[in-house]
Protein: Succinate-semialdehyde dehydrogenase
Organism: Coemansia brasiliensis
Amino acid sequence: MSSQISLAKNSKVVSTDELSKLKDSSLFRTEAFVDGKWVKAASGKTFDVKDPGTREKIGSVTDMDASDVRKAIDAGNTAFESWKKTTAKQRAALLRKWYDLIIENKDDLARILTLEGGKPLIEATGEVLYGASFIEWFGEEAKRVYGDVVPSPVANSRMVVMKQPVGVAGVITPYNFPNAMITRKVGAALAAGCTVVVRPAHETPYSALALCELAQRAGIPPGVINVVTCSGENTPEVGRELTTNPAIRKVSFTGSTPVGKMLMEQASSTMKKVSFELGGNAPFIVFDDADLQIAAENLLACKFRNSGQTCVCANRVYVHEAVYDEFVDKFVSLVKQKLKVGHGLDEGTTFGPIITERGLAKVEDQLKRAVNSGAQVIFGGKRPSLNVSGQFFEPTVLVNVSDDVPMSCEETFGPLCPIYKFQSEEEVLRRANNVPVGLAGYFFSRDIGRIFRVAEALQVGMVGVNVGNVSSEVSPFGGIKESGVGREGSRYGIEEYLNIKLLNIAF
Ligand code: SIN
């Protein structure tokens, strides 16, 4: 087992000291945001939030239960009555102000995000900008929600299709993108004229609360955005309330496939509109005609973004046998050169910790099972030794991994990169599609015929061709198969928050 990883300039970060470096400390909130007010749970209970880079407590946040959530839903429902009547132009102006404030405060938002979510500060800043782009985009899209005039089959009637906001949306977001997964959903909801009750992940509530503070400063009216924070213990009951309360008309969730299935079942009790962005297991295919340097650079970013904790991260890398050795050498030397493991706030860090203990345990378990079945670790492979005692795992590259170990069949959500050899297009497509999920897939080739054949044959919702990225505010983000339903971002994303109404007008 090899261990040549680079470490960032390895100071001893003290998480709470880092909070004092915020330019605007009022962005760090510890209470929930309901009906335009900062409120505590009726029980008075709180839960602790830790920095995954040090395992130190950053602070405590109010721990809401179902009864608190009902009050937030009521607030959202009352606010909906007036918010739905605002013009698209008014909503667009408020979203633009919110966007401007996010940009003005991006450094603080990024610091908060790194402290709770672990990602390197430079990557956290990237997420804040990515998150802001959804607010800007959906503010603009608000003005482009058009209806239709349908040719009627009856002479003396006219048919008009109008679009109306669905109502209060329940929004449940994950820990890996504490900022952007909120803005991608809330931006679309507000632009459509819906109000929201957001439950951020208990590991990363602070980014959500900071966004609320800025939304309030932007003038978004009370009750339009509500954020209910809760501990892991209260998460099931809060989730159940958001998916079963009759006043909630839409549920949007990003997270794992098993939890998505459960929430979808719960939401079916009142037939809510749903969009679910669930787990992936992205194939990343390098054909023998690919530009290997470009493919290797893209794999580095695609696989190790957020230390592998992204649902569109490459999970299985297939390389044609004719270029396999050359590609693996190029890739490993990039990993060695570019990835510096450390606390996200340490200078030079490009690779941070695993956000949860259970995530780290899963990485170790998948690695052990692959190695026990004959896989070879050619880079990384263990917890690094650092000055901070966070949940770190080295970026790890493996070869000779069999197709039937968990690493090959399930999403890793961590920094393991198995590289498999293949011989033909038909074979690699069969292996790439041989999973129950289908979120993103990537391939590298310069043959135009193959580009269309493979792009059409990959069973995924998003394909990167000669690029390891599919995400942006204009991209319809979402999957097929067990990766979920619905699309976020793009002009399609706003449709998820709208009902279609037909007017059949006889005269
Ligand atoms: C995710 O991992 O859930 C989202 C990733 C992205 O938006 O690129």
Summary: The first strand starts at residue 6 and ends at 7. The chain has a mean pLDDT of 97. The pocket of succinic acid is lined by residues 176-177, 254, 310-312, 471, 477 (CB under 6 Å).
